[in-house]
Structures
1.
Amino acid sequence: MTIYDTTSTEELVWERLALIPDPEVPVISITELGVVRDVQWDGRQLKIVITPTYTGCPAMQLFVAEIRAAMHEQGFDDVVIETVYSPAWTTDWISPEAKEKLRKYGIAPPVKGASDDPFSEPPVVPCPRCGSEHTTLQSQFGATACKALFTCDDCKEPFEYFKHF
Amino acid sequence: MDTNQALFQYCLRLGDTNLILGHRLAEMCSRAPFLEEDVALTNFALDHTGQAEALLQYAGQLEGKGRTEDDLAYLRPEWEYRNMLLVEQPNTDFAYVIVRQWMLDTYQCLLYDQLRQSKDAVLAGMATRFLKEAIYHYRHSSSWVERLGQGTDESQRRIRQALDDLWKFTPEMFAADTSEIALAALGIVPESADLLPQWTVNMARVCDKAGLQMPSGDHASAGIKSGRHTEHLGHLLAEMQYLQRAYPGAKW
């Protein structure tokens, strides 16, 4: 690897990272998810800073493995992947375009609550298929840590909700 | 007390409580009353274990002796564990699982909310993340308390029993040790005693909705500061640590 131009190398890395899909929600990439926080190339070593979505998310190990594999494929031998907890990841970092991709895929995107009070009621989640606001929470917990299960009271379809976080 | 040392102790307490509760909840896998609840409890287990991983990793860095989160989890004996006695209590029945969870969720919501303001950036970042998880846990566990309290005679009897039985573990949540006192003076952590009034208000509110009498809190038990535990922790660790004890350094 003999690219010494820092800016173009980092841009190349970002472009390549944008091709790695979220293992659980393959319509969006890990960069759209907001997991990759920083890319630094010093001419020898490539450092990629990521932040976990959920602390116990089993997909994080896969993120790391896939990032490493993609970077090796690009010819980077010395790759350091650092995990940081601060600032904490939030679903606000998911881009509006990515939220629309989620909705089209059938997963209701995160809805920001009216208040930060832990003891307040959760917000209304519109159905990703018909847009109805008459939906019922079936289970706060779904197939992955980041999703809850709902059904639509109008079109009667069950759907997954990407929890606001 | 040296700040790093105090913060090490503090993270160990928080990390151990999460680790042991995570393990207890993992024991519920395939044993919940129905499938969605099984998914919920194992989600909780993942969250708590994930929080423990982050806290113990940070604890290991603060200690500076090269211990990793795995070393701390799998190679410490019972008396070096600093978890709350509440979380090592067994999954006697579903009501115990729910009450134990609800008591701790209410506490963690309040604690993490305060810790977000910590002068320690790492702890503040972790608390911001953990709070979001704790809120989901709280909503779930408190709604179960209401359902069981308002349910059948049998569900009422069981949740009362669990509440009366687990209530004795309340005081240790709000008792400070030397590391907490040192860190609170520096604005790094809140004084846990300050969380008690709000905790009590929230517990009373849910008890009220559930038609439950809140037990009076004049019990005393504290193992978190001394390393003394109930008989249950040893059995839990025997299972959790078995592999690393039998095959030191095993990896897969």
2.
Amino acid sequence: MTDLTSPAPLHEPGPPPEPPPAATEAAEERPKGTASQRSLVWWRFKQHRLAMAGLIVTGFIYLVAVFAGFLAPFSSSTFNADYTYAPPQRLHIVDRSGGDWDWGLFVHGYRSVVDDETLELTFEIDESQKIDVGLFVKGDEYEIFGLIPWDRHLIGPTNPDDPMYLLGGTRTGHDLLSRMIHGTTVSMSIGLVGVAMAFVLGVTLGGVSGYVGGKTDLAIQRLVEFFMSVPSIPLWLGLAAALPPDWGSMQRYFAITTILAVIAWTDLARVVRGRFLSLRNEEFVTSARLDGSSRRRVIFRHMMPSFSSHLIASVTLSIPGMILAETSLSFLGLGLQAPVVSWGVLLQDAQNIRAMATAPWLLLPGLCVIVAVLALNFVGDGLRDAADPYKR
Amino acid sequence: MTAPILVVRNLHVRFPVKRGFFGRTVGHVRAVDGVDLTIRPGETLGLVGESGCGKTTLGRSIARIITPTSGEILYRDAAGADVDLATAPNYELRELQRQVRVVFQDPFSSLNPRMTLLQIVGEPLRNHGVATGSELEDRVAGMLQRVGLSPKYLHRYPHAFSGGERQRVNIARALILEPRLVIADEPVSALDVSVRAQILNLLRDLQDEFGLTYLFISHDLSVVESVCDRVAVMYLGRLVEVADTGDLYTRPRHPYTEALLSAVPRPDPRLRDSGRRIRLADDLPDPADPPPGCTFHTRCRYAVAGTCDVPGGAPVLAQTAHGHRAACLRTNELDLAGIEPDPV
């Protein structure tokens, strides 16, 4: 027993371990004890109906954002000044005006009417005109993913010069549907890019704060409190107003995103710090250190997986805030500027009551914002609930 | 007598007490306050004491989870060279931590819920570059089998296991690096009584098999009696009595030990009321401001004013009989009751 120079070998090979479950085995059929965290989270998430609905809607919205050029009938800059505030047209599938069933997509044209009393020019649907609408029609050129040039559109008038306003026209005679689809790209991507920036800032500062602790923690937490105590709208306004007016739209886009991220990182930093603080004293972290893991490995391999799902959930929950912030800034005229279109920029048209009275469809971009924000919130809620599959 | 595997000399661990906005240090908690301890190879040394007496801190300093404030922890490695664990630099410590391993108390928080048994038990092997790939898997499987778990659990996550099984995993992780000294920090106190015996037997079997030395930290005297060769009793950061288990249980030489022993439940109903039950006052003195003289005098029923509470007159751990040391000023005047060996 005291023969310490030759300790008994610990690794006499026992019977060979059973091979890991075959990859062909369906994930659901594997015993729960071997399911990875990811599949447990997914099982939990699937049980959350609202979150699943949110996920589908969010997925759809991002698809629209990616394929905006193809889905929109026109480019975002195409307009026809003859049709300002044109009302929405109904898309017909069958033409029965000739007495028989004439299949084919079409919309009716417009007839301009001058009001006798106010002398205001309004449009009415003229049922005698028929504008043929086709699928995969040639139209304005655009680039898929900014790379592949193409000119086909999912839907559009067969003759590109004919007016087609499925969701109505704007004050300048742009097609609202096209503008909304193009706005999706900007509005949704600003959420992602901004959250990505906030994520980097928040995780780094929060992680340092929680892992190092002490004076560093104190300093970073006071910084966070400072940023949280500044009222956000005036700060956005101030920063946005300070942007040089001669900046291009791309520069402005990133500047606005950065401004939003500078404020949004604080919440994430708090979440990350809290997690680090609570995990730092967990015994499995101590034992990881005793097992000889490097500091890096302890943080990324042992600590991070324990809250990565919480991180994903809080990131998802912060995207809607980002979208709303961009929308409000642009609505106030201090965010993105034409020619860039976002939902906020489109809502600028709906600022005065008369425009809204004559053209209520201008509020539709607001509906997009609501749907997107709700869907993302549901997804975030579902993720948060599913984030820790080991707690019941 | 073989040379000791570990000698702790005058070890102090102090934690600063911080107050206020700027974290000003207003005092120190003396968690470990001048401990001398010797562990001989192959033995199981029990370390007992009530909650907050510093026994876990002592164990953690030996494993260098905590860096001690002062003192020496001399570890004799396999080659016979002495290394001071208290001051060893990080690169040396990494190697030493292969030989000194810890089994933690809580089987639930000490296993990473996001890792499979293979990853958990294989982590030390991987980090020390001992084995990789299928060799690592074979060794982990073999180790799991040694601790009584089927190798088919390799790819399972800890949440699928019971407390006893998790503690087996903990033991497997501690032993896979072939350590020489294992610090078992209350390894069974979080377990059901029915599982306790199994784990204790496992620890004992593994000790015989691998020639391990245990520092067994516990507050459960019946557990300590069944597994330990020698017992050290700790009170308020200091050792008050060290003796062979049988000797300590039958003839305690310190009033604190006597009080602890009187609280051990007797399984034999006929003996239940035979012993005197000594009740200690509930409050452990503040370790940031220990009482003068013998730190136990505030709760000791044999304390004599003028002898035990003289500032600077703290008792030291002194030999009272062969292999029996106690730190009590009146130890020779007292006749303390222990536990009679169970009649067979």
